[in-house]
Structures are given as C-alpha cells and as structure tokens.
Write a structure and sequence with these properties.
Two copies of one chain form a homodimer. Chain A has about 270 residues and is an alpha+beta fold. Chain A has seven helices and twelve strands. Chain A binds a DNA duplex (30 and 30 nucleotides) through helix 2.
Chain lengths: ~270, ~270
DNA sequence: CTTGACTCTCCACCTACTGGAGGTTGTATA
DNA sequence: TATACAACCTCCAGTAGGTGGAGAGTCAAG
C-alpha cells in the first residue's frame, strides 16, 4: 500500500487528477484510512490506470472509459466505439486542414493589402424558404425596379405579406443578366396562375456570405471579396448568387444611400 | 432595430449565444429597452458579428477577438497571432494523426486476438534520476542475483538508502546479456572508487511503458506487447530497456510469485 | 381579452482538470 | 521529545464556450 504521492510519481499522473478519478469513480484507491481519509493505492492498480490513460489517449471520454471498465469489456462494443473514433478523428483532421487553409488565406490577404479586409466571409447553412418571385432578363443590375413593382402588385392584390427580407437571385450575368426578385412568404399561400409571379421553394444551401454595409454602388467590393475567398479556400460556386436586402436604401437615393445593408451569398460546395 | 430572435435568424447564431456575447462584452446590442430589458440590434451590427465568426473560425478565442476588435486592429499583432495559430493547427494535426495511428493499431490488435489486450502501453516522460549501479554480462535474465548482492553490500557499507524502486537496464542481449542493476539514490552521495559499484545520472527519456502484473516467467508477454506497440505506432527504440521492480517477488518464489508488479520501459523516439 | 410566441434573468450543467485556502498527519532531525 | 516541514485531506472556485430549463414578463394577432 502506497500513498497518493508515490502512486502519482510512479504513474506520472498528478495527485489532483488521481483524486478526481477517485471522485468520479474511475479509479478508487485500494483502501482509504477511515480516520485520516488518506488514500492508499496498490501498485497492482497501475495496470488499470494505464488502461485508463491508453483509452483516454485514443480519445475516449472518462465517462466512456468508466463504462467500459465497469461492464467488463464487451469486445464488440469497444470495436464499434473505436470505429466511431476513427471517423471522428478523420473528420477533425479534415476540419483542421480547412482551418489551416483559411488562416493561410487570411495571412496572404493581409500581406497583400497590409490591413484587415473590411469584408468577413463566413460559411453558413441557410434553411429552405418558400418564396414568391418574378424572373426576367434585365439590361443592368440597378434596373430591377419594374420586377419589384410587378411582384408587389400581385402580393398586395392577394393580400400576402412578406415574412422576411426580400432578395434577388442572379441566375446568370452572361450574356444577359437573368434576375429573379423574391419575397419570402409562408408555406400555405397560393397565387393565380395568370401572372408571371410564381411561388416556389428556395432550396436549403451551404453558402459563403458577406455583409455589405454601404451604398449599392460599392457592392462590387463585397462581390470581389467573397469570390476571392471562395477561390482561396477551395470552394466552388454551386447555384445562383443571392442578394438579401436586410436594410433597403431610402427612397430616392437607392444607389448611394450609405446606410444600406445587403448580404451577398453564394451557394458553395467543397471542390 | 430588430429583436434578438430575428437577429439570430439573420446571422444564424443561436439566441443564447448572442446573449452570451452580450454578457462578455463581445457584441452588445445597439440598444436595450430599460423597461423591458429587451435587446434591440441593428442590421449594421451584422458585419461585426461576421467578423467575430470569421475570427473564431480561424481558431481565436473569444477573449482574443474581444481584444482585437477593441484595440482597433493592430495589423502587426494580428499577423503574429495568425502565424502562431498556423503552427498550433499544424501541431494539432500531427497529434490527431498519431491518435489515428493508435486507434488503428488497437483495432488491428482487437481483430487479431478478438479481445482487448491485457497490456496497455503508454508513452510517458521519465525524469532524470541519480542511481548507483553495477554492470556486467550475465548468462541469462534470472541470474542477476549476485549483481544485486554486490550492489546492496556496497550501499549498506556506505549507509546509503534507496529512494525508490530498483531497476535493471539491459544494454544489449546479443550475443550476451549486458545488464546493469540500479538503485535510485539522492543527488549528493558518493562512493569509494575501488569497487565495481558506480554512481551516475540516468538521463530523462520519453519511454513506452507497460505494467506487468504477474510472475517473472511471463514477462515475455509484456515485452512482446510493448515491442509490437512500438512498431505499430511508428516509434523507434532509443536506448537500453528498463525493468522497474515496483513490487518485487517474495523471497524464494522469485520466478513464479504471481503478485509481482514490474514495469517494462523502452526509451523511444518518433521514427 | 386571451393565446401563443418571444424575451428576460438566473441558475445549473458540460469536460477534465487546476489552483488555493485552511486544516490534519506523518516523518526526519535536533 | 519538540518541532519543522512535506505530504495529505476537504471544499470552493474557475477554466471556455456555451446549452438547457424554470419562472416571469412582453408583444402581436385574432
């Protein structure tokens, strides 16, 4: 019977940790003096402690280890756990690699411009959304006013309210700009078929997004930033870009109102 | 001004998290109603939130981000941080890779023997240790009794006490077994030079270790386990193996006492 | 006016420990 | 045998980045 300090020295596990393992019932001392509360261990407990360390090292939680050691090794289950761990570790390695790419991209960006970019691209998942929309080819980006009017008119006529910020999808820009202006609506509304306004489901997507705070006529900066980012981080565009009008410009100065807030999103996938 | 739920939906950050960010001063709402305590955000706060998410994604802690955003971007410092992060991520990837190797090795071992091994190998660092020792070539492993006697005699004569469990170093076993029996001692003792007993420093080392609980005549199982492990996990032996006699056998049944506890260590390095 | 969706604060919990305060116990030396 | 001093004890708090729930107040629609 040896005291906790020596047991700690032999096993190279801190005293505090041994006490903690006692507390959670993972490794209880062979004996506890009921007068002094001193913990007394036996060297024959070292194999168990080593097993604990080995399993911990494989990435198992102390809870899992406790169960494994209690239930007297159901080999099948252990095998399953390890397989899971394998997958988990591989995933984490993939994530670390992506993170490394992003850090490197950021560093390059800083080296080049010698300041932190004003645009921070984030990846997020957007949920599927029911929308009412009008789609048409337009001569230039700012000229979508009539599409918006067409959409609004139809919605007002059918007393439909929008359920969130409106947005535009750009299906292509070469040779002509193919735009679809959208207004999110609830699931259950339906529209007459005799207009160009249709309702459909905007699919869920993983998007690279950037927030543009400033007038529309500087939107290209945001586009540049997000497109650069997508390239630098090894993604590929996977659907029509979206512009979400979080804070539309005041009437009149639509191109230059500096208090406009717009989110630019591109659906992406890992390439 | 929008409420927290909508801000959460726009940013895809959970409400709870936004409240937490408020609490730690990372992102405070543009306004708080002093009667109802409702938080009101502005969409113009989305860029800041996106910056937070982007930096978090690079692996910075919320604390670091708070500082960065407060101190108005000292570019140099950010660059330094990112370089550090790069190194850190690379290290973590290395560790994950090793972990993967270990999990795979375990799995193979389980597949082969269809049970969990009785021997759990762990890597640990052992500290440097002052020892008194006698070294000689012996005909077989069990025949080290006379070396131990020689060592004990000298220690008793000089009234030196051992400061821990004794051990044997095996410098080679081919063609002959070259063994050094050792007794740990305090820093400051010295011995006369006219005997074969010498004192020296056992260097610190990273070792692969396994605990053998059972009679000496089954020690080979532990050796097999640790040597297999070293190979399977891509390590190389880097010094003489050590046997540490944590619980020496009772007098008499030295080869067969089942309550013997011995630690087998091999200094290793990554190959 | 009621219902139901939002929001608030406060508390506890998660992992695997670590650090410290304040109080015993064991051991070595004078 | 007295006294240091190391080793040990328990209990409490804190770490990072949140998540979950209780209980109470607020807002908008019908």
């Amino acid at each position: 019977m040896i005291r906790i300090g020596l047991f700690s020295k032999l096993s190279q596990v801190p005293v505090k940790t041994l006490r903690y393992y006692d507390e959670i019932g993972l490794l209880e001392p062979a004996e506890i003096d009921s007068f002094t509360d001193y913990r007394y261990y036996s060297v024959t407990q070292l194999p168990r402690l080593n097993r604990i360390l080995a399993l911990k090292d494989l990435g198992l939680s102390l809870n899992q280890i406790t169960l494994l050691l209690e239930d007297e090794l159901p080999v099948e289950q252990l095998r399953g756990m390890l397989r899971l761990k394998q997958v988990e570790i591989q995933q984490r390695m993939g994530q670390e690699e992506e993170k490394l790419t992003r850090v490197a991209a950021r560093l390059r960006q800083i080296e080049q411009e010698n300041k932190m970019s004003n645009y921070d691209v984030v990846i997020k998942k957007v949920e599927p959304q029911r929308i009412a929309s009008v789609r048409d080819v337009i001569p230039s980006y700012p000229e979508q006013g009539h599409l918006w009017q067409e959409l609004e008119t139809e919605l007002v006529r059918n007393k439909i309210k929008s359920t969130g910020p409106c947005l535009t999808l750009y299906h292509s820009d070469e040779p002509k700009i193919d735009a679809e202006v959208c207004e999110p609506i609830t699931e259950d509304v339906s529209l007459p078929k005799n207009t160009r306004v249709q309702t459909r489901e905007l699919p869920a997507a993983e998007v690279a997004a950037v927030i543009h705070h400033g007038p529309f006529n500087t939107l290209s900066e945001s586009y540049e930033a997000v497109l650069k980012w997508i390239e630098a981080n090894g993604y590929q565009i996977n659907g029509p870009g979206r512009e979400i009008y979080l804070q539309p410009p005041a009437e009149g100065g639509s191109q230059t109102d500096p208090d406009t807030v717009t989110e630019v999103q591109f659906p992406v996938m890992k390439s």
